[in-house]
Fold each of these.
Amino acid sequence: MASLYLIGIGPGSMDNLTGLAVKKLNESSVIIGYKYYINLIRPILKNKEIIESEITNEVDRAERAVLEVLNGKTVSLVSSGDSGIYGMAGLALEIISKKNIDIDVHVIPGISALNSAAALLGSPIMNDFCSISLSTNLTPWNIIEKRIMNAAEADFVIIFYNPKSMRRQNGIVNAMEIIKRYRNESTPVGIVKNAYRDGQEVILTDIKSMDYNTIDMFSTVIIGNSQTYLYKDFMITPRGYSKKYEY
Amino acid sequence: MASLYLIGIGPGSMDNLTGLAVKKLNESSVIIGYKYYINLIRPILKNKEIIESEITNEVDRAERAVLEVLNGKTVSLVSSGDSGIYGMAGLALEIISKKNIDIDVHVIPGISALNSAAALLGSPIMNDFCSISLSTNLTPWNIIEKRIMNAAEADFVIIFYNPKSMRRQNGIVNAMEIIKRYRNESTPVGIVKNAYRDGQEVILTDIKSMDYNTIDMFSTVIIGNSQTYLYKDFMITPRGYSKKYEY
């Protein structure tokens, strides 16, 4: 039976793919994705029909993937990171459910920006955290703003996806203005650009000193909670062991 | 130079390890971990010194790992899931920073329970979400409670790690009592047990009908937001494409 695999390829380096993702790519005859991400995994896509498209054509890509499966082909629709975290899995399943299409479909998990940015920073998300996308493309700002307030108030570590784009320059600035009402200016901030790919940059700073110009559309921003601290090249959010154990 | 690798091995199936994790395990001469997780990856641990311990000895394991590196050995300290998400990375870095130890240390990202449970459920965390551990071992209940309230109020999808343990049976019951104040009883709930390993179970239910007896210490529980719905075997949180595009 033909299947649809909704695959997260991780940050983009070949060695942050899982074995399961590689296996499902191998089993597919058609690979569909945004061309920038297809390029990152092209070395392992031998003898495949590759359908590449531009960044904004998500709906076309998802519909094309479903159509190819209905035509009897096994298809991998790829996202960077984890397909189920701001990736293509949700859109594909939305379309399948809305049109009540009966195909075999599986989501294959991947290393999302939260996993990869956190690893490069040390251990910033070792305690409870929230993930918030600052893109207003699909979510209105008033909802995003409410989530930032609640997350800051409850002392969650906060991960910002899509902190900036060509058209949206002020999302991260406005978000930080909200956070400043709840958190000390010395709270650590980690900025990771192009995690595990060419141009990787890891910046450790704090709320007061962070430079918004260093943030772009390939950045993930992690704001520490009240316990987070910096040590050498690491951003560390303790989980609480030191209150309970001697070391 | 000897190095310490803080490695997330993913949910436990060999094919949800990343290539980078396998590479760093191969480079290590000593592997340290809780014996249940060591067992999951034993087939690839050839010619290694393996130091296994019981579940509660986290501090001992982290200190031993640091000591072995100081003795000149390259060590992998393994966690299930992602070492940086309620895993061993934070504790190891806490100890290193507190004792001001100067060793080469790297966190290697892995597929956490949030990635794997979400993939098995469909696309429940496609929009903003919070991760909350219900373990009161290291965090007092009043802080956890505050986080649940804020997360529920701001309509985050909520992922509960450690929903129950041998000693803590009521955490998830109390957590759901809080959530019921903010969310409709028909809100979808996904429960995933033993993701990608023997005994895997995927349960789709809702706040009203969920059976607390199905939840154990190997479970991850995901509570939908106000937009989440069930379709066939999938739990879907739309990201908002249907408001903007025709399909």
Note: The mean pLDDT of chain B is 95.
Amino acid sequence: MSDREVLAQLRAELGDALDTTDASLEAARADKSGHASTGRPLAVVHARTVSDVQATLRIASGTGTPVVTRGAGTGLAGGANAGPGEIALSLRAMDRILEVRPDDLLAVVEPGILNADLNRALAEHGLWWAPDPASRDISTVGGNIATGAGGLLCAKYGVVRDAVLGVDLVLADGRLLRLGHRTVKGVTGLDLTSLVIGSEGILGVVVGATLKLRRLTRGAVCTIAATFTDVGTAASACSAVTAAGLQPAIMELLDAASLAAIHDLLGLATPTPGEAHVTVQTDGVAAAADAAAIATVLEAAGGRVAVSTDPTEGERLLAIRRSMHPAMARLGTTLIEDVSVPRSALAAMFTRIAEIERRYGLVIPTVAHAGDGNLHPNFIFDGPDVPAVIWEAADELFHAALDLGGTLTGEHGIGALKRRWLADELGDDQWELQRQIARVFDPQGILNPGKVFAT
Amino acid sequence: MSDREVLAQLRAELGDALDTTDASLEAARADKSGHASTGRPLAVVHARTVSDVQATLRIASGTGTPVVTRGAGTGLAGGANAGPGEIALSLRAMDRILEVRPDDLLAVVEPGILNADLNRALAEHGLWWAPDPASRDISTVGGNIATGAGGLLCAKYGVVRDAVLGVDLVLADGRLLRLGHRTVKGVTGLDLTSLVIGSEGILGVVVGATLKLRRLTRGAVCTIAATFTDVGTAASACSAVTAAGLQPAIMELLDAASLAAIHDLLGLATPTPGEAHVTVQTDGVAAAADAAAIATVLEAAGGRVAVSTDPTEGERLLAIRRSMHPAMARLGTTLIEDVSVPRSALAAMFTRIAEIERRYGLVIPTVAHAGDGNLHPNFIFDGPDVPAVIWEAADELFHAALDLGGTLTGEHGIGALKRRWLADELGDDQWELQRQIARVFDPQGILNPGKVFAT
């Protein structure tokens, strides 16, 4: 069927929700990875209701037209980038909170709500949803679910999969399924809710989610700032905190290159060359005792340590960490990588990164969610396209993580950018099995084709 | 192929691991549900190694012979019961702890280890694995994973799915897949680990698991005993605890019929007719403050409340709860049901149970994991087979739970006993989709056929 006929069907069914303006089509090509599709999609559908999503998918399956689901477009793996001949299905306008139940510790929401907006609304009930991506002010709950995103609080408060009870899923043919439960426990058949979390738009379109909430944490927050002579010592110190049986809410590590770029951005004094920085927050009723114990471990591991109970000072210290992305953006185009390793292997992974830097003559500023072993090495280059040498270095990075018992991607997903490495981690048998499972949901292969699985 | 030829192949490959003694074949017909298969299976294979499992499955797939995987046989839904023409594959002898990593908060274990044995070994490292089924002394980690079992601590410490990082899975054709990660975060492709958890032996055979551990909880444990004039008041009081933002480690409710039977078993004074009992434990550094706050809520809701910080008294109170199964066994054959509802609906569910009792002239002693909304109504009858009237009453029970936003099974699974209700909860579309996914793993349908999905 011609593009014109597909557009005519979409317009007839969806009216104003159909958007074919140049600016919208151009925006739908890219996410925050820096990567863009080869050209503009056919159309953007701004779904307002579940029915809009179902209508779009019925037309897509009837005409064999690919559909790329998008939220706020803040992904870092190109997973939501739409290209020629594809419909970009935006759920950003479906942003309502349908239900908040403090007595059942759950909320039912539409996927387009921003993470930070949700938590602002929940705070009025004394509640919060724990997944806390660094992008929380600009990223959606649906995108969080689609990528299985992580964030800063995972070691203590869990990942997205631990915080979703159920999802409403529109299949490729437009049928609506309600997966999961409203209960704490539920084991009826296969856990399709968990299968959908992190599936990056290849199984269906998440149009609603039942979220598992927590009570807001009681007590003051304590913040620890620790400086180390080098990143290896800092990484070992973070591993020692976990090994000592202590559990920070947040433990972030900035290497020297990251620190230098951020200080430059913020107009702070130039840090001592080579030094690395660790920022820790503890919370809950034992926050002060935990902070004291963690400070002792960090000092014994070679850190110069300061503990603060002042919330303003805590925010100032974390703001340095949160300035990583803008600081990198000033250096050039950035490919933000996302390997994760067992927590004991953090220093070993930094050693491997240093080797890659030397071998390729690169500087790879790296920040780590050190409490859970997730590292974000940043490759910096000029121009829009990732140079071949960067991909070669990234290839070594991925295999180093796998060697250490880790993974290609802790929280950003495979998307378009890592699909050629997926089988390296899964093995061919599992890769093929996963592909067949996706085909059960989407026999025609119209949902986000070319993403996750290399074609 | 004839049974004799299948046995000859198994004997040639597995030698002493093959068991065709009458006692073993008879034992493999049943679990703790009271339900048994229609006759003895072909053989029991006592796998000692992953290779034994792979060899068994290669022969099974080559000959089209069904395989029913078993652990300790403590299931409550008939999911591990093996019948005529089937191979019972026991993993109970694969019970080694392969690795404990306090620094990475993980352990790698074989599936046959008992839950309690694992936690005894982990305690030496100051660690524990949170899933805590009431059967922990006699049930295996593999069975826990296969059923997605819950237990007493789920509201505070999560369900099995939150506590498993990866599983090693032997497919129906004997291939071994390594699913999941050793890292806190990991989003490479579809989350097949979560799909396998709770899949009741229909996707493959779990031969190893990487478990996510916790540090042993610090601080004393406080125990609260509360008595209420009736079960509805007790249930409302439990809901009020959750609604007040308090989080017990354990909150168990016993109705009057349960309490009477247990007191009779233990030789305790006969309880006042109609009274219901709630036992709460708090733990962690705020245990005492939490206990005081919970006691206040329970008193305001009508309870007569006593708080104890004596561990012996705490154990004595919980022992009453743990005597539920033996107390029921003295009354007759028991069908232990397992519905779960949102926590706010606990009292409403007890009302529905009372209506069913009246309508069918039954007494249905019921205990509830009141912290998470999971109820275990016990149907008592004479003889080995569930009478039709009991299934009619159970049918009403299941639909009452669904009406209240709940589920057929919180933690025991579908197995053989609930398969005819599965589509009532999932809907026909999702039921069919789940069945197709299982077929991707097991195209011949030799893995636990007739379980989960009604044929």
Note: Residues 222-403 of chain A form a domain with the Vanillyl-alcohol Oxidase; Chain A, domain 3 fold (CATH 3.40.462.40).
